[in-house]
Specification:
mainly alpha, two-stranded antiparallel sheet, 5 helices, 138 residues, transmembrane helix, Integral membrane protein
Amino acid sequence: MWAEEVRVPRPGTGAGAFLGWVLLGAGVGAGLGLGVRAGLFVALGLLAVGGVLVVRQGPRPAQLGVLSGLSALPLAIAWLNRHGPGEYCSGGVTGASACVAQANPWPFVLVGAALVVVGLAAFRRTARPPGRLTGSRQ
C-alpha cells in the first residue's frame, strides 16, 4: 500500500466536534440575547470555555461551528417577530388583548441562515484532507 492511499482523519474534523462547537456558539448567542447582566455573564463564561479549548487543542476546523451556532440569536429574534412587521394583538384568556409592535423577521432569518451556511462551508473547506502534492509523480 502506498502512502498516498492511506487516509488518516485530521483531529477536529468530525461531525460530533463540529456540533459541540455549534452548541457553544448557540450558548454564546443565547447569552447575548438574555439581557445585560445574566446574558453577559453566560456569554463571557462560554467564551472563556471556548478560549481554553482553543488554547489547549490549537486551531481545529470544528471550531468554525461557533459561526453556525451564533445563528441562534438572529433566528430566535426572527421567531419572536414572526407576526411582523407591524402591530400584533393577541387575546388573553380573560378577553383582554395585548398589542406589541413587531419588526420584520426576514432580515433576521437571512442573517441566521447566512451564519449557518458560512459556518458549514468553512468547516467543510478546512476539514477535507489536502489534495495530492503538485510535484509528486510516479
